[in-house]
Amino acid sequence: MKKTYIRVITVITAAAVMCMSTITSLAQESTAVDYELYEYIKEKFDGFEGIRHNTEEPSGEKDYDRYDYQTVVIKAEALPEEDMQHVTYANNGFYVLKFDTEEEAASVMDKYEGQASYDEYAELWDTGAEGYSYGSWGGDIIDTAEMRQAIIDKYGSLDRMRPITVGVVDSGVDYNYPGLAERISSKVYNFTRNNCDVMDDVDHGTGVAGIIADLTLPNVSINVYKVSWENPLTGKTSTPLSAITAGVDQAIADEVDIINLSLGISYSPFTPDKEMLQKSIAVARSKGIEVVVAAGNSKVNSADYFPANMESVITVSAINRNRVFDSGYSGWGTPIDVAAPGTALSVYSAGGGTRILNGTSFSSPHAAAAAALIMTYYDGNPAGGMEYYLRSSAMDAGDEGWDIYYGNGILNLSVKAKEPIIENASGGTEITIKAAETDSEIYYTLDGRDPVPGTKGTYLYEAPLNPEESCEIKAVSVNPVLEDSDIVSEKVYVGSSIIDSDFEIDDNGFITKCVSEQPEMVLPPVIGDVEIRGIAPLAFKDCSNTLTYIELPETVTSFGILAFGEAEGLRVRLAGDIEETGLYPFGR
Predict the structure, then answer these.
(1) Which of 119, 143, 203, 204 is catalytic?
(2) Residue from 83, 126, 143, 170 carrying the catalytic annotation
(3) How far apart (Å, rounded) are the C-alpha atoms in residues 67 and 342?
(4) Taking the model in full, what pTM does it have?
(5) Which of 72, 125, 177, 408 is the most buried (most CB within 10 A)?
(6) Are 490 and 446 in contact (CB under 8 A)?
């Protein structure tokens, strides 16, 4: 057969065709397969074991932990017949060629210099968690229970919920695991052996898929694309970029809603095998498929790692149980979109039971699960898109706004914005109001009325407030994708100007008498050049009938007996700690 093929292939692997007893044939699912080219490859490689690894024993000083020196990826519009006979996979102008020897592969590398690369292995982003025993806490941090209940309240029954599919491109799953088995769809494929057995022999994908199953509702199913295995030549896990590409392509053909990639590789040098995967991810995004990617471990700068550094994907860093970025391992940098639980998580383990592990590998499926729940709630992607929703709803953490560790904040599945926090941190009259979410705006009033954006007397909070008189502040958080928060209120008391002659002060700095008729007072630390240290017995008895509020400086540390007389309903605000107090300082 003499023929040069120039068609750009979307899916060419034998995947679905060989799994007709288990999953629906691609012939029924997609018209994107070039069947003539598929038959050609099938004829040439009858019995081929899949996108695999070196078969020769390691030789020389080659990096067998990183490269498959018998597999070459070529970027070309077409290949001649002599090279097509070695093709095992093709996609979007890229060809994967498998050779019997390293010498043959090296010869083709020379022939296509600048257009070819050896197939490189990505890394699965998990690590041990010695010394931790936190367990499964991630769902509580991101409020999955609230979102699940909102979905149930909205739709009532499972058959009214939109079916959502998450494609997990990983090391496979333990499809016998209770609670996970029933969530695995019929669309599965093992790209390392060209068959339908996706059993997890690495014990990574089971934990990833388990998080998605555990956090979502049964309307969410999981397609499994096995792309990793234990490499017998190195004794380590190998995850070829060509297999990952095939998995992503199959997920596209299967029309999944979300793809989870808990893996990555150094971006430099940017070789054809990486470009091939990048192209497939770009195709997925162009079709509206959300792609969620782990930020990476080993404290890497995610800008230097692929596919975490792709602008179109959702890149997820890791936090610990205290909602703090885990600098001990998590990737960071400009690509970070959101942060999610990743430290000391209890995850499903292949063969049964659970393991406690760290890793952005497990942060990523938290975000994939969140996307699945959001799609369920909104019956598709929310207005503005998934990335906009996750960014806008994220709980601000670290530096205010976006930062290189948390991105836009901590993943948040609350349906309603959190209440704003009104603070008087300075101890004076300056008032600050903080929103919990990164993109929430705060609206407030100063007259005790409920704030309604766009109405008279309701203001957008932009800077600390300094009320000139006592008032009741009411505030609400308004978020572009969440329901408005509950309204919170705080009464602020602002004292009139303090007149030194209204007070008598002894040599020890104790106020011994007050004759002021002001109902509200904010005492300064110094009156008449004397630092105020305490309130003597009965000092305020002459003004106890009119005084309703007093704010004391942090210099005041002592109260005498009946210091404020019989002041009923008096509100006192202390800036410091009281070390000594007599009997009934505020009356009997």
Answers:
(1) 204
(2) 170
(3) 28
(4) 0.78
(5) 125
(6) no
